[in-house]
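Table 4 source record.
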Amino acid sequence: MGLTILMVGMVNRELWGIGFGRQAALIFIGSVGLILNVHTLMPGIATLTGLAMGFYGLALSKRRPFRSAILLGVGLGLSFLSGGVIPVLSLVLSTLLLPAFFEIWRTRRYGLVLSLSLFVSLPFLMVWPVLLWWFQHDLFLTWVNSFHLFQTQNYIFYIKNLSWFAWPALPLAAWGLWKFKHKMWSQAKFQLPIIFFISTLIITASYAKTNQALLMPFLIPLSTIAAGSIETLRRGAASALNWFGIILFSTILFLIWLGWNAMLTGFPQKTYERMQFLAQTNESHFNIFILIIAILLTVIWIFSMIKTRITNRSCTTNWSIGLTVSWALLMALWLPWINHKKDFSPLFLSMEKVIQDKTCLTTHNINDAQIDLIDYYLNIKATREGDRSNCHYLLIYQLHKKDLPPMSENWKLVWNEKQPGDKNNYKLFYKE
């Protein structure tokens, strides 16, 4: 993740000049959706790094063509190996649309960059598919047939979720586009992020699966535009954003401390009862080392509120500090209870008792993380919304009474449980 942040900063230094890289990095890490996903161990983090490298490579294409080609080629390869064809298509579409729409990208140097980057990326793009085709031909065909592109248009899902996922990068970028509306189509520092955003939206929205993690690449172009536009923000708007962040994160920190204290002391009573319901346990956890870290985090936030002079840049700096401190404090004080609440092992291990054949399990409304947990705990390779004709088990997460896929009378309910604190049921059906 550190490499991703570095790439985002270097892009803005290249496009906007010295001093803007740090601001872009702060806006990037201060995005609400990023901090909710970046702590997880998922290949999407490596995909994000590859896209950031490719984006930086495109930004460098006018000044350092050979370095640009290496970054773009490696970025393409890393994106492919970690995220498949979707991120690669986003980068490729960006590289093609730039010269198609803007004359300043129609140069021999840019053509040289694309040619060299293709040469650099070929080992990444070819070795793994060739090896898969050679040693596991059936898996290769399954992988090829899994490209469900341009079958759906999930634009509403991504646009709607970007409104909170990309805060505050999205409103700052929108302000920048409005402020520079007469210049943005003639300058590379706007052309590149706009085309990258549009390309990513076209490819991602056409993918059959919808996932919040797929929103992370949008933060790269949004942070780029936002960082370059922050200085043009009106003082009143910057002050409002700063005070909104101070009030919001101070309240969050207070509630985190209040919940932790309630679980340890039982006071206040209402808070203690609420925490028990949320954590589904009444166990208390105390660690002096963790307590010291939590106190230091709180002191950092208090110091940043008191000592910082309000400027356009300080409002995003304070926001990033507040978001980071809030997340770190939550993990420090509430992590045992969060782990207890999110622990799926009792649920899936109870399901194992009724499963006699572990060769096939199809699912409905079960996300990728839960499918991985089923593999981890039960050693069952489950599939999402797969073909049920030759499979005897179907696991469903029922969101409401009528939320059941079409099934024949041969399917019988053999297991019905729910995660503690969850109102919805997990149901396992068996086909005789």
